[in-house]
Amino acid sequence: MSSTELPYVPASNVLPKVAPVRVADGERLRSVELPGITLKIRSRPPAREGLPPALYVHGLGGSSQNWSLLMQLLDADVDCEAIDLPGFGDSPPPDDGDYSINGHARAVVRYLDAAGRGPVHLFGNSLGGAVTTRVAAVRPDLVRTLTLVSPALPELLIQRSAVPTALLGVPGVVPLFSRLTTGWTAEQRVRGVVTLCYGDPGQVTPDGFSNAVQEMERRLQLPYFWDAMARSARGIVNAYTLGGQHGLWRQAERVLAPTLLVYGGRDQLVRHRMAHKAARSFRDARLLTIPDAGHVAMMEYPKAVATAFRDLLSETEPGGAASGTATERADTTSTGD
């Protein structure tokens, strides 16, 4: 252990009183207790009985709220649930402090096994894309289809704008950053995140921005906030260095599930050129590129992502809803509006 890295200390069971997590109209947030972890699950009631199940997994610093817009659009197509990974959203830290890609993937697998909902239509964004790729590779029995939005798969040369995020995984950087930004307001922090993650920050509505500020204020009061961020960022960096059968690209090649890949042309965290490598790596891939989208296309262009998923659903589910062709096979690129 580096001299600048503090040992993991489990968070106290007594946490400061913070504002409740926002739950949108029609959503439900419940707690699931599993050995060593407690997970919060966000869901919407399906439009009718018998819809196939879906599970959504957020990215670094995100939460299940990142999927609310897409869940609302797809509640007539799938039975939607979104997970708060351990240490994020409203889920407390894992007892063992494991924020690696494997640790988060185990949390997803344990939830699906306990809930008996598999196989599911599995969605992942950024960090969640790496996590769900690993889940689909090692537990194909749990996955019907895989939809990846700007997945955090290894790149030889990361974009300059992604360097600060990667640096969060370096021991000692987070305490330093926390001290340097002590005077930053929640509004300033959210504005920085929006500028980094959205292709066009102007798309964020005033209500959406206000809700994000409230959520940031809530998270900053949590004693484990920065630790979860740092250790999860380190988990991404460590996963990038793995080779052999444990490497994420090798595991992508093992995924059997039909896969929808969604990339943004203005993504500052994942290079758009990685879309073509991903399309070649996943066995049964479809590619949707949205030129004006950034890193969170499901929040920026939820209708385009929903349409592309329905196309995938029409191929894989009996009686699946068919819609206009928003995706192409893996050897081509299409645009969303």
TrEMBL record:
InterPro entries: AB_hydrolase_1, AB_hydrolase_fold, AB_hydrolase_sf. Transmembrane segments: none annotated. SUPFAM superfamilies: alpha/beta-Hydrolases. The lineage of its organism: Bacteria, Bacillati, Actinomycetota, Actinomycetes, Kitasatosporales. It holds the Pfam family Abhydrolase_1. One of its GO terms (molecular function) is monoacylglycerol lipase activity. It comes from Streptomyces cadmiisoli. Coiled coil: none annotated. Keywords: Hydrolase. This is Alpha/beta hydrolase. Residues 55-300 form the AB hydrolase-1 domain. It comes from the Bacteria. One of its GO terms (cellular component) is membrane. GO terms for biological process: acylglycerol catabolic process. Residues 316-337 are annotated as: Disordered.
